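Table S2 (text version). Query chain:
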Amino acid sequence: MKTIACDSAADRPRAEALARALGLELAETDPAPDTWHLAVTPERLELRQCGPKAPGPVFVDLAGGRLGYRGPRVSARKEPLARAVGIKGGVIAPDVVDATAGLGRDAFILALLGCKVTLLERHPVIAALLADGLDRAAREPELAEAAGRMNLVRGDAAHWLADHPCDVVTLDPMYPHRDKSALVKKEMRAFRAVVGDDEDAAQVLEASLQAARERVVVKRPVRAEPLGGQAPDFQIPGSSTRFDVYLTRP
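Corresponding structure-token output:
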């Protein structure tokens, strides 16, 4: 991905600033068909694909969609992720490092449950989408408290974890898929086109196991092999995904 565009002249200064920060070209005309680009709109920052059959835009939305519905209903008892990271009774909420932050959905669920969450994202474009989404969430009265518990760090997870011991690390790595149905979701298509697979996911798991004082939680498709072939201490199953939990406490 090489370009950034804006929908109106009023958004051009922000688009220019992001272009400089991310090393992108500011598009003066419509980007080429089937290419992905960033777009600055009056409402938010979006990742778009051009072309007549392109999916809708990808953006970080912590207020709407599935999160908007789930947010008021989040409880430690009902969330498999909460059980996986060790939240107990809604009282014990460990500090968590989300080493593969993506669009921030799991991190936001944990923040709603009281965890302080450090979101690591090494790809600059995805980090920019996250920063935009967190900024918008912080301006929403009902979301501001949870958003205040989330801290975005742009950088490589394995290197960052080597210098930052923590309580819990969560991982949701991309990995090579053979099933074509995995490309149906527009977020998956965007991440594969812009970011690619996490070829070093097993190495990030090892770094996480060294850094976490309590546990490492890996989100996996329900039928996938354990990450790196390393069997977890236990699993929290779900309908389409599961959480593999590796205990690190002595």
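Notes on Table S2: The radius of gyration is 18 Å. The longest helix spans residues 124-138.
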